[in-house]
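Annual report, structural modelling task.

Input specification for the cobalt (II) ion complex:
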Amino acid sequence: MNIALQHLLQGNERFVQRKLSENANVFKQTAQGQQPHVLWVGCSDSRIDPNEITQTGIGDLFVHRNIANLVVEFDLNFLSVLQYAVEVLKVDDIIICGHYGCGGVNAALKGDQLGLIDSWLAHIKSAHQYYAWEIDALPTERERQRRLVELNVLEQINNLGKTRIIREAWARGARPTLNGWVYDLETGQLNVLHDSIADTDQLKLACKFERKKQAS
Ligand code: CO
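The model returned the following structure:
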């Protein structure tokens, strides 16, 4: 086995020892079942570990990650996670967490040709086209990238709110709320872009607000 992999297993041994020293029954307890209150939808980027950046622990977050934190209406992988989170685990809140400096968003903005991944990134390109008026008017590449990251989060919240799973959940009550956050790699901080959207009207309002800015 190479050294990089050995390093992972050694880390695992330290993890087990540390957890047991804090609570001798921790693994027996967590093996009983999970009751996370939050579904986290984030980017696959190696620098953003949802538990690490929120200082949460085992069992706290139900997590789905893909390149550029996209919600794609025919993505069976994501829809299965969503259905399980909403209908079985009954999470209270869903967070779509984008991040500044996202390679996927930047590639979509530049129109890079990367092969297979292009068809995945096409979903961001459509958000870019939708908000092109605002994004293309920004003076620097950095500002354009950061704005598209934010608007991409909103687009994914909008996609999420249009799924049957969320519409049916909202028809039964006010949960789960949809939240749009962005993580800043340069500071380690999370910023809230959209807070506790809990019905179709609030969702429309959030989208309308951004789109109105396009027209003004
Ligand atoms: Co990313």
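The longest strand covers residues 190-197.
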